């Protein structure tokens, strides 16, 4: 996937860091499903969709919801009119988002390459750059995080470790109660052993 951005610069959200070297891009993008989000902070349709996309992304990558972040990366390709508008929008979005710098002509290249004519649009790509979904906006609205499983299978990622929020919640409940159950089992076993010892002593007494 880094090949798509070779020679380009991506910005880390809410930081001044640039992700630009081939090694940095490979670490950030390779072996992951890539979402290119084309939008604008002031666009009414985008303003309705952005909170859904934010929740979608967090439920797949935030440790509050999943045991391990899914192999997913999002790059914001804005149509904001000013750099201030782009920055303000990104500040309200997850820190893990990346973005094409404001004013970068590469944004237009991406729009033409993936035939993006209106926003919001979410292009879903395999690690090799092949398109999985041309525009996943409606799919995300309809299915939420569940649609990532289909993308993951299509992308043939090396590591298929994935947990939805519900799975993680169930796992958390088990992990919290297991030590209690084990402790109770040990106590019960010790009590039974002591009782057995007392009974044997009673039988051996004159």
TrEMBL record:
UniProt GO cellular component terms: mitochondrion
InterPro entries associated with the record: RdCVF, Thioredoxin-like_fold, Thioredoxin-like_sf, Thioredoxin_domain
Signal peptide from the UniProt entry: none
Domain of life, source organism: Eukaryota
A biological-process GO annotation: photoreceptor cell maintenance
Thioredoxin domain segment(s): 1-142
Protein name: NXNL1 protein
Organism: Bucorvus abyssinicus (Northern ground-hornbill)
């Amino acid at each position: 996937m880094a090949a798509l951005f070779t020679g380009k610069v991506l910005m880390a959200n809410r930081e001044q860091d640039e992700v630009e070297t081939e090694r940095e891009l490979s670490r950030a993008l390779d072996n992951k499903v890539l979402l290119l989000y084309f939008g604008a902070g002031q666009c009414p349709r985008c303003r309705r969709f952005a909170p859904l996309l934010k929740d979608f992304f967090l439920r797949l990558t935030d440790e509050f919801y999943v045991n391990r972040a899914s192999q997913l990366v999002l790059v914001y390709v804005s149509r904001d009119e000013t750099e201030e508008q782009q920055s303000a929008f990104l500040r309200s979005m997850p820190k893990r988002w990346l973005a094409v710098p404001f004013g970068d002509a590469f944004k237009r290249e991406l729009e033409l390459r993936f035939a993006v004519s209106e926003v919001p649009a979410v292009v879903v790509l395999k690690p090799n750059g092949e398109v999985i979904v041309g525009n996943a906006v409606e799919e995300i609205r309809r299915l939420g995080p569940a649609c990532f499983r289909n993308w993951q299978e299509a992308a043939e990622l090396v590591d298929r470790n994935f947990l939805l929020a519900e799975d993680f919640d169930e796992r958390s409940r088990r992990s919290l109660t297991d030590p209690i159950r084990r402790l109770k089992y040990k106590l019960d076993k010790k009590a039974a052993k002591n009782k057995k010892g007392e009974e044997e002593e009673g039988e051996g007494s004159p």
